[in-house]
Amino acid sequence: MERVCEELDEAKAEIEKLRAEHKIKTQLSESLKRAHNEQLIKIQEANAKIQKQAQEISEKADEISITKQMYEELKSSMSEKVAIIKNLSSGNIKLGINCDKKLRKWEEEKRELVAALDVANSKNMDQGQKLHAYKEELKGLKSLLSASEEKFLEAEKRAKESKELRHRDDMLHKLEEENRKVQDQLKWKKEQFKHLEEAHEKLRGQFKASKKEWETEKSALLDEISALQTNLDSQTRIAEGLQSRLQMCNQALAHEESRRKCLEVQLSETKTCFDSVLVECEEAKSKIECLTDQRDKDIASLRDLLGTKDMIHKEMEYRVGRLEQENQELRLSVKELQEAQIQEAGSSSLSKLRNKLKRLEHIHKDCSKNLSAKEDEWSSKLEKMEVDLTHCRYELERKDTVIKELQTELESCHSSIMHLELQNEETSLMLFVLKSGILEARLKLSNEMRDMDLKNSEREEAVSLLKKLLEIKSAALVETQRNIEEDHEKMASLSRKLESLSLIEQQQLQLQDELERHKEMLKESSECQPHLTEQALLMKSDSENSEREEKVSLLMKQLEIKSAALVEAQRTIEEDHEKMASLLSKLESLSLIEQQQLQLQDEPERHKERLKESSECQLHLKEQALLMKSDSENSEREEKVSLLMKRLEIKSAALVEAQRTIEEDHEKMASLLSKIESLSLVERQQLQLQDELERHKETLKESSECQLHLKEQALLMKSDSENSEREEKVSLLMKQLEIKSAALVEAQRNIEEDHEKMASLMSKIESSSLIEQQQLQLQDELERQKEMLKESSVCQLHLKEQALLMKSDLENSEREVKVSFLMKQLEIKSAALAEAQRNIEEDHEKMAFLLSKIESLRLIEQQQLQLQDELERHKEMLKESSECQLCLKEQALWMKSDLKKVHEALNRANDELAGKFCEGNELEFELQIWKSIAQRFKANLEENQRMRKEVEVSLLEEVEIEATLKQEKDSLGHALEEKDRRIDDLQRQLVFLDKKLKIRETGKEKKKIPNGLQKEIECLEQESMQRELEGAILAHINAERSYEHEKDNFLRLVEERDQRIDDLHRLFMSSPTTSFSTQLAEKQAELDLVHGAWEKIATSAVLKEMEIQEKALVLTELEDDFSNLQKKLESHLSSSEEEGEEIATELKAKQLEIRKLTSVTDKLESENRILVEDVKKLLSNRDSLLDFMGSVTEKVSQFSVEDKQLMRVWERIMQNFDNNGRGIDLKGNNDDDNLFDPLKENMNIHHSLTTKRVEATTDERSPLRALNN
């Protein structure tokens, strides 16, 4: 026992030492973990950067693929556009030819129309002169008429002959017939003129329709050209975007170089960290070796202790067996003695035997107690030792695994460090070469840039002067073009107004003819008036009553008043006609008069009806006069009535003529309304011209934008790299300047022509002012006619009174009826005159409305004066622009010589940059390789971290298990104390029972119980005691056997697992190592297997600890129920068997996992081979890409040259259009003369503006030229 205690103390001391060492090792492991975590963080950061770079490179590759697609699309679109441009050029040529033919036809037609108009104007002038002569003749005739009237009155008073009157009537009839013939001729001429006007209007409509069609075709072509320009602009923008992307790629490459330097610094830091870690690992190795030596010594000492304990246990078993045999022998001897004592009935011997038995029983009880206590102690010690052994084995296995992992990590670190060192050396060499090349390039570029800066400063000054001159010139051109367009519009409007004035002059001539007719009619009426006066005098002389004489005198006075009123009415009518002719010349914007046209159309019909009624009334008056003649009693009265009838007929004829004049006036009003409609059409045309002006303004804006593009091109000429392109641009600018100078010359000529047209228009406007004066005179005449009409209405009232008086004079009722009928007719005529007055008032209102629009013409005259001032300004601006053009030509020639030198320097820089770009691509490929290596290191580090975390978890679990074991020890100590107490209680009960037996024996002796009963009682007691002892011994033996059996099974399982782990390790070690990645995969698989086995062992240990706890509880309950112990032991055995089966299944599953891992490793190897092939393919693709980019640059340069050639063709076409659109042939250089076609004539100027925009877009940079800058 003392030895066992000493050995236990030594074991405890060793355990404490091991714990102290374990703490030291845990501290070291924590420090290693911290260093490892720091390294992991750094490596993760480096991996993140590498991943970002990989993403950026993939994005760049995608962008390159997109650019390829865009380039192919651009190729296809360019080919399509070239075909479209060819088609358009052919279509433009055809359209130009067609337009030239049409314009020639229209010009011929215009010339014919102008000749016809000139003839018509000459005829009108002749007719005007004739009218003036007729007017003078009319004045003479009026004077003659006045004299003849006086003579005629005297002759009538003297002669009173009717023959002369009849002769005069015949003469009047002849004159009327002649007037009718003249009117028919005039009507025929009017109809001819109308037909000519209609033909002229038709030609105008055709001309306008053809012009509209040409404008629509022109607008369609302009839209197509603008669409093409927008497409070209979008393509240029795309090319600029590609240039910006390429610049971004260059910047990204520079950024990646900086990152590479940072990674190199980090790699140097990792080297130092790896060195420190290696030193720490070596120290840990030395410590681990020391600990393994101590562990071996401890294990040897523990094995010795176990051997000694086994010997002691065997000796105790032997002693127990011997004691059992002695007990059996003693029992037999006791039985024999009892039989002998019963037989001999000796009291002395019985007492001795009983004393011996009691002593033996006490000794046996003490031995059993000591044996049970010792067995408990030995079992607890054995359990503790087994637990310690298991812990030691676990720790040894863990340490072995950690050592192996550290060894593998060290090997991998050594290999990676060597690889990194080699790569660093390569990169350092590459960087050194790059730096040297970059320094040389920088020196060259700095020298070239200084030269370029000096040249650029000079060129910028020249370009600034050119810009200013171009701005001045563009502003002058814009202003001149606007003024020219406004002048053209005004000239067109004035020409239209002059045409309307010519028509109005023709109408005035017709009105003058009508006035002459009215004058003749007035003369006839004046001749009729003296006849009426003579008849009135006869009626006075023949009248019987004084009242009738007074009435006749009144009638005579009324007739004289009426004749004077008619003369004045004729004068007023003439004046009104002149005013109407003057006002109708200025009706340009009378849209409201269209409503009044309907009313005017209804009025002629009313007047016709009234004339019919008046004619009927005249017939009735004639019939009444005849009746009056037949019914008259006296011949004198009949003569007077006949005279009155003649006068009435003359008045009716005058009324008929007045009606005719009114109808003619209505016809003139209808013609004027038609002319008003034509004026409304003219207003619409003016609106169309305004729209065209807005279009011209837009084209001017486009021309200003083109000028800005030219400025930009002048700036771009500073940085352009190719001599041919710059020379072509300069030549283009020179050509454009020549074109502009020619355009300025043409503008000057057009301005001079406009001045001539303005002078002719001013002369025509002066003639229109004379016409306005005539119109004012006509207004005065209209007012006079109104007064004459009022006087005629008064005369009609007097006639009504006279008719009433004649009714009273008449004797018969029939005459009274006729007079009443005449009164009715007179009332009807008065109503007709009232309506005529209303119509005249309405005409006056219309005249007032027309006067309000005459003022608009005056405003137009003021605007024309302003236009003349603006034209003078434009002349001055054109002179300045011509001077600026000469300066620009000189500067452009100076720029050519400077740009050639710049081109050579830029070509050198481009070659150097191309070489550096190739080196950058190689560095990118090396970066990808580094990224793949870094990813592998990252995976290895993550696996190491996982293993370390699992080791930490297992250590924590061990600490927890130790704490639980301590608790179990305490609980077992408490249980042993309780058992000791129970044993003491049982001993006390036994003593108490012994006393009772003694008392019973004494009682038996006293009572003298028979000997048979006492023997039976003693036998029963002995049998009960034996049964109890046998049951306890059997239970103890069974427990020991079960414990030993479980212990053997556990040791077998542990040995089998160790053998399997060793076999797996040997298999993995024997497998060939193909690559670094396969080794890592195998090591990961080994670690997984070891970790799984360790977990299973830990679970089995935990289960066994639980079994030990359960067994301790079973020992506490041995006294109550031994049968329950057996059942529990059986259940434990069954559970252990099940665990064995589970372990077997798990081993099978792990074997399957091992097979899967081997297949995975094979797949990884195949993937690695594929990756190597992919890398080779990528290298070949990179080379092909570089070749492709070179071919692309060549093709782009070819396309730029082709674009320039196309632009030259466009310039030639548009120059022809510009030059032939105004009918002037330019005189340029001999080279330029060869470019013009004689067929390209009469094209509009606005095509040149769109082509200038095309020049601005195509003369920009090519999409891959940004790399050169």
How would you describe this structure to a colleague?
Residues 1-63, 103-231, 313-377, 477-524, 734-792, 823-880, 969-996, 1108-1167 form a coiled coil. There is one protein chain. This protein has 1269 residues and is mainly alpha-helical. The chain has a domain at 2-84. Helices cover 94% and strands 0% of the residues. The protein is built from 13 helices and no strands. It has helices at residues 2-158, 162-344, 347-542, 546-584, 593-631, 635-719, 723-809, 813-1007, 1011-1070, 1076-1116, 1122-1221, 1230-1233, 1247-1258. It is elongated, with a radius of gyration of 71 Å. It starts with a helix and ends in an 11-residue tail after the last helix. The relative contact order is 0.08. Residues 1071-1076 and 1222-1269 have low confidence and may be disordered.
Please write out the topology.
Blueprint: H1 2-158, H2 162-344, H3 347-542, H4 546-584, H5 593-631, H6 635-719, H7 723-809, H8 813-1007, H9 1011-1070, H10 1076-1116, H11 1122-1221, H12 1230-1233, H13 1247-1258
Keywords: Coiled coil
Coiled coil: 1-63, 103-231, 313-377, 477-524, 734-792, 823-880, 969-996, 1108-1167
InterPro entries: At4g38062-like (IPR040262)
Write a concise synopsis of the structure shown.
With 1269 residues, the chain is an all-alpha fold.
